[in-house]
Amino acid sequence: MASCVHLVKLSVGTEDVAGLDAWQSSKRAQTEDGLPRHITRMWPKRGDEILNGGSIYWVIKGVILCRQPILRLDEYIGADEIRRCAIVCKPGLIRVEATPKRAFQGWRYLPVSDAPGDLPDGRQEEEALPPEMSKALAAIGVR
pLDDT band at residue 63, thresholds of 50, 70 and 90? Predict the structure, then answer.
């Protein structure tokens, strides 16, 4: 049985968790069956590990703030006829402990041992702090 690994990805142009949720609700960000997806140029080489319980952890303004379980990896061929990977996720964002993350391009693998923990159920519905404040608090060890 394959082990599990997550992905971490910048949510470019997103101001907060609500903005990412709004984007994923648009038809442009969904598969034909209505699930949220992220299209990327590179196909993950560790696909079996990702599909063994992995999530995509979203970085918003330099802070990992939420995640989504990954359901499948679909082939996507756009108008330019280039093969890409659509990372298809379970709908809904799960808020996690705010964790600073430096900028990078594309996506990166995130070992299970390095993944931020989910916020407790009672905190999932709280209004999120602005990413800059979350980043400052995480830098001093307050999550």
Answer: very high
CA distance 47 to 4: 10
**Distance between CA atoms of residues 64 and 102, nearest Å:** 10
Mean per-residue pLDDT for 45-68?
A: 96
Q: What is the DSSP letter of 41?
A: S
Instruction: State yes or no: pLDDT of 25 exceeds 80.
Output: yes
Nearest partner of 118 among 94, 100, 99, judged by Cα:
94
Give me the residue label for tokens 């984007």.
23
Measured distance CA(26)–CA(120) in Å, rounded: 28
Name the residue ranges covered by the structural domains of the chain.
Answer: 5-139
Kindly provide the residue ranges of all beta strands, DSSP E only, lying in the chain, ordered along the sequence.
5-10, 37-40, 55-60, 63-77, 83-89, 94-100, 107-111
